[in-house]
Amino acid sequence: MDIMIYAIPVFFLLIGIELLIGYFSQQQLYRLGDTVANISCGVGQQVTGVFIKIIGLGSYVYIYEHWRLLSVPNHWASYILLFILIDFFYYWFHRYSHEINSFWGAHVVHHQSEDYNLSVALRQSAFQGVFSTVFYWPLAFLGFDPVPFFIIGTFQTLYQFWIHTEAIRKMPAWFEYVFNTPSHHRAHHGRNPEYIDKNHGGTLILFDRWFGTFEPEKAEVVYGVTKPLATYNPIWANFDYYADLWAAAGQMPRWKDRLRLWVERPGWLPEDMGGQQKVPAVDRQKTEKYNPPLPPFLPIYVLIQYVIILLGATVFLMVESQLDWPKLLALNVVILWALGNLGGLLDLKKWGLPSEYLRLLATPLALYFLFPLGSYIWGLAAWAIISLGLLFYYQWRKANS
């Protein structure tokens, strides 16, 4: 977790560089709503992860300490083997996350963006850690020390950040053959029929080549999922696919089909309901992205609030180990409410403004009763008053435009 926190400034620096590349090359690599939603999903995953990581970290350590069959020595050769094995098990976790409905419901969050830039790398599901943990248990049984396991696993996660870009077209041929690259991963994020369920590798692309899931990037990639999410709300993004599964199960007359749906491939239906659904063909030039027209000043308000939320979430991640569970839960509510609200504003939802007014009033009160803020309470009160003033100004401009 500490490594990930230290990586945050680097993430945003690289995003800034990619923004400049898009500006000078006259490419629209970023859109406000999509970018905010992407990063919000990542923030949501990190803050809720303070609970979920107990399952992942705790279960691995418990198996290693009580049930390991061997004790693999800490040696450079074992680290290389561990790196390969982590990537191997990641491949199968990632592949099954595309091939099993209940797993896809968590992983789909990462694929919902209709753009492809470095912010998409941060778009992660709040629930995916629950599923991924099990795939790495064999390494604990084999006796790989938890510390190098977590360090190398974190490196693999960090590696995948840079491959989420259109600014890099191709790497040298030998590199493209061995490693996962922006070109390979662009294809993975495509909803073109030929790209569905391809290129699952983390750091290496070799397992895709060996197990028949490799597809080179040829046709222009159309990003996103076959049923577009059509919202910038990061909270709903985590539940949308599960809601679809629940609705589909409710239309099935047989209980065995309702249960089978959760372990079948995405798009599966019983034969009497049409069978496996085909992936529709797409054309990037004819595909319209979700992009509600934002009223004047709303983007400025959202950006101001978003910077404050990101700073607050970063501080939370730095001190979360010192907090008790009630405070962790309360701060999760505060942060997730803020992220969901900004999504509602960008979606132009009717509930967005009333909920935002309530949040601006409730947040300082909640923090005041949770922590001994001392003189900091005046800064918090000033933030609330200024934010309310900006919100009133936005409504005034909207009413008089």
Output the keywords:
Fatty_acid_hydroxylase; Sterol desaturase; 18 helices; iron ion binding; mainly alpha; oxidoreductase; single chain
Write the layout of secondary structure elements.
Elements lengths: L1 H23 L7 H36 L8 H24 L1 H7 L10 H4 L6 H8 L1 H6 L3 H14 L13 H6 L3 H7 L17 H6 L22 H4 L2 H11 L4 H7 L36 H22 L5 H22 L5 H19 L5 H25 L1
Helix pairs in contact: 2-6, 2-15, 2-16, 3-4, 3-8, 4-13, 13-14, 15-16, 16-17, 17-18
Summarize the structure in words.
It is globular and about 60 Å long. It has two domains: 3-211, no CATH class; 298-399, no CATH class. It is an all-alpha fold and 401 residues long. It has helices spanning 2-24, 32-67, 76-99, 101-107, 118-121, 128-135, 137-142, 146-159, 173-178, 182-188, 206-211, 234-237, 240-250, 255-261, 298-319, 325-346, 352-370, 376-400.
Helix content: 55-70%
Alpha-carbon distance between the termini?
A: 46 Å
Largest sheet, in brief, is:
none
Number of E-type strands: 0
Report the structural category.
Answer: mainly alpha
What is the strand content? under 5%
| Bulk shape | globular
- How big is the Rg? 22 Å
List the domain count as a whole number: 2
Helix and strand sequence: HHHHHHHHHHHHHHHHHH
- Number of helices, counting only DSSP H or I runs of 4 residues or more: 18
